[in-house]
């Protein structure tokens, strides 16, 4: 639903909301992936929750995924576009950024969709 909302917001030209929705969707999938991988490695629930809370998407998504998956990773371009989208989302939420362009929004959405599919396939 969040991705459908993100696509809709692009369609109507509300790029800020599209970024917010797509990054939230990525964060949900990444959190579920981290939780699942932590359980496989017998990491306690409290430690997993703290990692998600303190690192999660706001930390370095590339490092987190590389620590949990050894090979066949997405390209550096995908990681960079996800990270860029996360940075834009943080500026919207924490600094009130208003100007977001269509191109960076589309790049964020497409990269987030790719990363989410990648993580879901690994679960």
Radius of gyration: 14 Å
Biggest sheet layout: none
Query: Separation of termini?
Result: 20 Å
Total tally of structural domains: 1
Q: Which percent range describes the beta-strand content?
A: under 5%
List the total number of helices: 6
Oligomeric category: single chain
Mean pLDDT: 93
Q: Strand pairing plus helix content: what structural class? A: mainly alpha
- H/E topology pattern: HHHHHH
Q: What level of helicity do the residues show?
A: over 70%
Overall spatial form: globular
pLDDT < 50 runs, ≥5 residues: none
Strand element count: 0
In short:
This protein is an all-alpha fold and 123 residues long. Helices cover 78% and strands 0% of the residues.
What this model shows, in words?
It is globular, with a radius of gyration of 14 Å. It has 6 helices and no strands. It starts with a helix and ends with a helix. The chain has one domain (2-122). The chain is an all-alpha fold.
Structure keywords:
about 120 residues, mainly alpha
Q: Could you give the topology of this structure?
A:
Blueprint lengths: L1 H11 L2 H26 L4 H10 L6 H8 L7 H20 L6 H21 L1
């Amino acid at each position: 639903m969040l991705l459908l909302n993100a696509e809709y917001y692009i369609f109507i030209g509300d790029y800020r909301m599209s970024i917010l929705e797509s990054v939230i969707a990525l964060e949900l999938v990444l959190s579920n992936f981290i939780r699942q991988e932590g359980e496989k490695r017998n990491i306690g629930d409290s430690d997993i929750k703290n990692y998600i809370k303190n690192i999660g998407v706001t930390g370095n998504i590339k490092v987190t995924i590389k620590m949990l998956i050894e090979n066949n990773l997405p390209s550096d371009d995908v990681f960079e576009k996800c990270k860029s989208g996360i940075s834009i989302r943080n500026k919207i939420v924490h600094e009130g950024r208003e100007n977001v362009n269509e191109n960076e929004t589309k790049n964020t959405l497409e990269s987030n969709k790719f990363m989410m599919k990648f993580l879901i396939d690994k679960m």
